Amino acid sequence: MRELKELFDNNKQWAEQTREQDPQFFEKLAEQQAPPYLWIGCADSRVPANQIVGLDPGEVFVHRNVANVVSHTDFNCLSVVQYAVEVLKVQHIIVCGHYGCGGVAGALSDAPLGLIDNWLRHIKDVYETSKLTEGESGEMDVNTLCELNVAAQVRNVCHTTIVQDAWRRGQTLSVHGWIYSLADGILKDLDLCISNPDQLAEIYRMGG
After folding, report:
1. Other beta carbons within 10 Å of 86
2. What is the model's pLDDT at position 3?
3. Max CA-CA distance within the chain?
4. CB-based contact 39:63 (threshold 8 Å)
5. Which of 204, 190, 168 is nearest to 97 (CA)?
6. Per-run averaged pLDDT (10 residues), the chain, 208 residues
7. Burial code of 47-64, b = ≥16 C-beta within 10 A, e = fewer?
8. Which residue in 56, 79, 123, 177 could disulfide with 192, CB within 3.0 to 4.6 Å?
9. How far is CA 42 from CA 51, 62, 70, 82, in A?
10. How many Å apart are CA 142 and CA 139, to the nearest integer?
11. How far apart are CA 38 and CA 92, in angstroms?
């Protein structure tokens, strides 16, 4: 414990303060995990899920990666979604990006970044698809692509067999698209909420 001692000291202080506020907090927390929300967000250290929405540990199930991407070949992300939906029975999946995202900025750049360039291809696809479908001209700014990326990842969540199976079972489940501003700490609802397959393009709807 000689290394990073300050972090252990911080932890001890936090645990003591938490017990002072609620003597049974940790006992109750250890008994069960039943969060109503799954948060899929960016790994950026400035975007802590629980703090942003003012919720305690145990109230939000969290998955984070660079630029809040939901890829159909990422079994880490899909496993989190499956556990959240089928075991924890969350009712809301929130995909939350943030303005000024370094991953999104990296996707707009042609500078080589290494291994992560393969991951950022997903965001480049969002950019290219948007340019083709919306007929945008000129250069797209980072914050616009941050919003478009959130919208694309919301759809990716809804296209998974996990979410579609839940809807077929009649499970209540909504997928939301939000974005966070580092400048003022405020969340913005992108007015994107999908609660059933009828809101998806027909090609993505699973029958049965």
Report:
1. 14
2. 87
3. 59
4. yes
5. 190
6. 86 94 90 91 96 94 98 97 98 98 96 96 94 62 96 98 96 98 97 96 85
7. bebeebbeeeebbbbbbb
8. 177
9. 14, 10, 11, 19
10. 10
11. 6
Radius of gyration of the chain (CA): 19
Question: What DSSP character marks residue 84?
Answer: I
Which parts of the chain fold into alpha helices (H)? 5-21, 25-31, 49-53, 75-82, 102-108, 116-134, 142-159, 161-168
Residue 122's pLDDT is: 97
- Between the two ends of the chain, the Cα-to-Cα distance in Å is 56
Question: What are residue 203's phi and psi, to 5 degrees?
Answer: -60, -25
The tally of CA atoms less than 13 A away on the side-chain side of residue 62 is 19
> What pLDDT does 31 receive?
83
Give me the residue label for tokens 């992108």. 190
Pairing of strands 174-180, 187-194: antiparallel
Q: How many Cα neighbours within 13 Å face the side chain of 191?
A: 0
Question: What is the pTM (predicted TM-score) of this model?
Answer: 0.93
Contacts of 39 (CB under 8 A, 6+ apart): 49, 60, 61, 62, 63, 94, 96
Strand, helix or coil for residue 189: strand
Q: Which sequence positions are flagged as catalytic?
A: 42, 44, 46, 98, 101
Assigned token pair, 140:
């797209």
